Amino acid sequence: MLQGWVIVTASFAYIGLLFCVAWFADRRAAAGRSVISNAWVYSLSLAVYATAWTFYGSVGRAATDGVGFLPIYLGPTLVMLLGWFMLRKMVRIARLNRTTSLADFVASRYGKSALVGGLVTVIAVIGILPYISLQLKAVSTSFQLLLGYPEIAMPAKAASLVVMQDTAFYVALFMALFAIAFGTRQLDAAERHEGMVAAIAFESIVKLVAFVAVGVYVAYFMYDGLGDIFEHAVSRPDLEVLMAPLGGAAGSYANWVWLTVLSMAAIVFLPRQFQMAVIENTDERHLRRAAWAFPLYMLAINVFVLPIAFGGLLHFPQGGVDADTFVLTLPMSQKAEGLALLVFIGGLSAATGMVIVETVALSTMICNDLVMPVLLRVRAFRLTEQRDLSSLLLDIRRASIVALLMGGYFYYLLAGEAYALVSIGLISFAAAAQFAPAVIGGLYWRGGTRLGALAGLVAGFSVWTYTLLLPAFAKSGWLAVELLERGPWGIELLRPTQLFGLAGLDQITHAMIWSMIANVGAYVIGSVARRQSAVEHAQATLFVDVYQQTGEPGSAWSGATSAAALQTLVGRFLGPGRAVELFTAYAKQRGVHGVDELEGDRELVRFAELQLAGTIGAASARTMVATVAREEPLGLEEVMTIIDEASQVIAYSHRLEEKQRELEAATQELKAANERLKELDRLKDDFISTVTHELRTPLTSIRAFSEILHDNPDLDPAERRRFLGLVIKESERLTRLINQVLDLAKIESGLAEWRPSELDLREIVLEAVNATSAIFKSRGVGVETRLAASVPAVMADRDRLMQVLLNLLSNAAKFCTPGTGRVEVRLTSGAGTIRVEVEDNGVGISPEDQALIFEKFRQVGDTLTDKPPGTGLGLAICRRIVDHFGGRLWVRSELGRGSVFSFDLPAPAAARRVANA
Amino acid sequence: MAKRVLIAEDEPSILASLEFLMRQSGFETRSATDGEEAISLAATFRPHLVLLDIMLPRRSGLEVCRLIRADAALAGTRVLMLTAKGGHRDVERGIDVGADDYVTKPFSTQDLVARARALLADPMLRLAPDAAPPEAP
User: Fold this and answer.
1) What is the pLDDT of residues A83-115, one digit of tens each?
2) Are strands A899-906 and A888-893 parallel, antiparallel or unpaired?
3) Helix pair A71-82, A84-97: axis angle to 10 deg
4) CB A398 within 8 A of CB A184
5) How far apart are the CA of B10 and the nearest CA of chain A, in angstroms?
């Protein structure tokens, strides 16, 4: 009857039943009538503690250690009876903070530290892998055993190892699928899994029924009641010893105490237990019933352990049957096929229950505390910009589950065969116990810090690895056995199983002693060593004084943001639809009509953070909320953001200052321009009055002589001619003056017309000298020219340039002493310029006058009795003309030694090249 | 005895016209073309009247006027300022430093000659020494 297909079909039928239970519970939950909101269901769900290890392994341990199996169940019983208040505190904290996992809980306590969360996750994953492999081993062993029916042959010894490994692989694969199906169908803000909890509670009943059924069968069908079995056992000395409290191979007070402590830690700190007891708890009051109902369950499932163990030992006296398999092999030996199948289903039930909850809990930790923090922090992934991350979260969790089961499978390949079920489980227990100092310290000691938690976890986990994991590998042949026997590098003091010479204890006790010393010591020293940060302090108070909290806890968000921004943020992780629901409900609760009316105050920010914390954990939630809101207690990321903002503000204020400076400069410029305008206005007034004065002078003469001539018709002809000559001369002067004033005004106002063309200066100089030759001759002044043979052409207005030359030449003639006067005109070309010089040997100009002569109406030589005719505008005009063509005009002179007036004009680029070539 | 008139004017053509007008009126004239020359000539020539251009090189007409007024020996000397600018400020300043009258360029020759005659006909002029300039003290 027990062919392979029957077993497989029965297994899948059972799994199908579990799905129905889960589906039913989820539907009820959606309808608002939660199945799991029930103290009985809660108590049963805690029984996920009883795994395949309990189901098969307890009997195995009892067969060697007698009542030595009991501490593993004594611990949880003690915790539930005496320590339930601690669980209640954790439940309260977890509910208020929307804690998603053990890692999230610890991280949250220590300043929402992503590092702490990550470390807890790593320890949990590595620590729990042996435990998962244990389940795989149990299920595949029992499957192979059952497949061998009616023969009873130990698969590990008889059947091919490869077949066993194949079975374990398929078991791992199917369990991964179950876990994904149960635990990651949807993403909930509360990270609660109603269907899963209901299924686990159901499984707890099945495995209890199956185990008790075997017990009853062995006690009352194979033997005549419990008394009969014990009588048989007492009659054998090797079995009698198992009944003593400290009997068995490893019986000692120390072992008892440490195993009890270990299991006390396990019932709280194994990820699946934390998941069931704390995360999935719907009501704190359920703990009260669980406080006695769960120990009762433990008792019920343990009552028949010794009878079955003795029955097995009595029934298989040759020792050819592994004691771990007595639960299954005893019914098989009696051809009780139905019972054997029920036992298999019960064992399967215990194993799948454990695997599902454990992997779901671990995958949540991996996703929220390992993968997401990295993804969110690595900007290259641009995760903070993506809209909907809920499916990504689910995918990460699914992948984690597959990875965990594959990890468990590989651990099984590595070390699974070397250990009994109990020993494998205890290694995981010891790993979970490493969380105890950080969590319990965190619950009751305000002074526990992030540094302390990190130090304690690292120290404890390191010792665990060294004293438990390494020996496991060594015993499996993956490391040299000398490591265990002689210690690393032959240092016996460092032997992993007898560290610092501590001998005479079993391996677990030995490891627990050292790891707890290291863990607690590092935690306390680390906590005392450095002060808490603001966030740490806030979180510590939040945890330790959780009962004093009123209302919702959360970070002290100081910055305001918009409700829409928060809703969008939450929507990216929970899905937009769910976010709308949550925010609408929240708006209702706050008494406003819609999300639009919600203010983005700290209450709303806190609400959004809690929603996110329920999905991606406290540390990541804080990071994400910080992207839309500001927070008082600061982490590195926030500080960086704020520094960013601050530097923007600083940059902005720099820009403001710059603008201010620019404005001041502009104001200064305006002031200067205004002053300049005033100055120009004053100059214009001066100019006008100067012009008026200059016009008045010739006018005065003209009028005076005209009147004299008019009033004296009888003037002698010579005088008359002289006076008329003066009138004509002054009239000419007046005309010239008016022309020059107009000319200057035109140049200065930019209205002058310039007709530039390419000019040969040589030709112009010669023409100018020619034009003024009459003046020179009349004044008896000699004029010579020394002109370069050829000069580059210049761009200038021919008439204007001629005007400059004529002015300079006539000035030279004017200021030369008649007779001895000599004027030389030179033309040279230099680097990029062409220079014209007019040198005279006249009176010269004093240094102070040299600058003045280029100003308007400044004439030198006023002291001369024979005042030269001139308007005082000539040089001013000349200078402006030369300036206009990009050149310059200047004078070198010495009083009494003559003057040299020079001007440069730039040679055009093309011409310059030719000139340079 | 002809009245002595000192003409201080830097523009040659204006100077020529003033010399003609004063001589035609029967006055003895001396001419200066800058302020310094005017002051030294005033001390030696001891004019009854100075025709003083206000804008003279080296020393302005105003300064020359002030010095003449400060010189007790020239107490009877009349000063007729020739101002090129018609501004009231020049007139005021001329009066301030003790000018007796002024004409504005371009002036009417008849007006100028009339004013000069009027100043020279002033009875106060009798106080002025007719004699040749005294020896320097």
Assistant:
1) 888 888 888 888 877 787 888 888 888 877 888
2) antiparallel
3) 70
4) yes
5) 8
